[in-house]
């Protein structure tokens, strides 16, 4: 029997993220791309840990003239594959864990939508059911704006569930704030990249890493989302 819920990873490629975001305070394209790549790998690992099917829609796989339209098309593409519930996540929220993904799957059995609010006013997770999804309402949400959470609350006629708040990593300041609140092997990889750059980071970070923090992740995954026509 086919699983009815799929995780959709929707975001930029590492190269594109590095072109539009500076994670290293001017450390250069290469260092920024290394950080973006680690964030993508972390997201893939978390998604697969949930045990749910994982689909990706990255970079040129996306279709549409606006962010909302591209995301809507990707979600509808997952529905077209036969899934009844979609959990869409980005690649810039390392606080997301597998337990939240399975919790969202369970909540969608009772509620039309589940959202994970980000600290910047956006969302890091969107859980939607096919039987209650409405494209027109979805496109009217204030995508990529500080009022997104408010517009979501206004758009839904039925009760939705909000998970706990989590951070998005969009800048060097965001990355520093995350690293100061988390201390583990994966976070040390990010520190290692930061300290290997030629940028002076002493304003943000006091002590360099003192061990070899190399960790590898498998990037094998399912094929890209097939889009509905």
Tell me what you see in this structure.
- The chain is 38% helix and 14% strand.
- The protein has helices spanning 14-20, 29-49, 67-80, 98-107, 135-139, 148-155, 172-181, 185-196; strands at residues 5-11, 54-58, 85-89, 113-117, 123-129, 161-162.
- Strand 4 and strand 5 form a beta hairpin.
- Helix 1 crosses helix 2 and helix 2 (29-49) packs antiparallel against helix 8.
- The protein is globular and about 50 Å long.
- The two termini are 26 Å apart.
- Mean pLDDT is 85; it is low at 207-229.
Average residue pLDDT: 85
Report the portion of residues in β strands.
5-15%
Gyration radius from CA atoms, angstroms:
18 Å
* SSE ordering: EHHEHEHEEHHEHH
The largest sheet has its strands arranged as 2-1-3-5-4-6
Number of helices: 8
Low-confidence stretches: 207-229
Distance between the termini: 26 Å
Got a strand count?
6
Q: Categorize the overall geometry.
A: globular
Helix percentage: 25-40%
**Largest sheet descriptor:** 6 strands, mixed
Task: Give the class from helix and strand content and strand pairing.
Answer: alpha/beta
Question: Mind sketching the topology for me?
Answer:
Elements: E1 5-11, H1 14-20, H2 29-49, E2 54-58, H3 67-80, E3 85-89, H4 98-107, E4 113-117, E5 123-129, H5 135-139, H6 148-155, E6 161-162, H7 172-181, H8 185-196
Helix pairs in contact: 1-2, 2-8
């Amino acid at each position: 029997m086919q699983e009815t819920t799929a995780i959709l990873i929707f975001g930029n490629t590492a190269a594109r993220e590095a072109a539009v975001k500076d994670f290293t305070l001017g450390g250069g394209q290469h260092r920024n791309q290394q950080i973006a790549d680690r964030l993508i790998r972390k997201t893939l690992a978390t998604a697969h840990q949930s045990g749910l099917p994982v689909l990706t829609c990255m970079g040129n796989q996306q279709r549409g003239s606006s962010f909302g339209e591209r995301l809507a098309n990707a979600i509808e593409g997952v529905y077209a594959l036969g899934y009844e519930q979609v959990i869409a996540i980005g690649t810039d929220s390392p606080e997301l864990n597998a337990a939240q993904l399975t919790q969202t799957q369970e909540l969608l059995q009772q509620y039309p939508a589940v959202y994970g609010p980000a600290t910047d006013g956006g969302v890091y997770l969107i859980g939607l059911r096919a039987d209650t999804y409405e494209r027109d309402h979805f496109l009217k949400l204030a995508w990529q704006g500080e009022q997104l959470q408010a517009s979501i609350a206004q758009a839904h006629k039925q009760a939705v569930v909000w998970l706990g708040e989590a951070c998005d990593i969009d800048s060097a300041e965001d990355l520093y704030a995350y690293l100061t609140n988390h201390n583990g092997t994966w976070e040390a990889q990010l520190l290692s990249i930061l300290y290997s750059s030629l940028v002076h980071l002493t304003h943000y970070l006091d002590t360099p890493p003192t061990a070899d923090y190399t960790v590898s992740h498998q990037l094998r995954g399912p094929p890209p989302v097939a889009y509905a026509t």
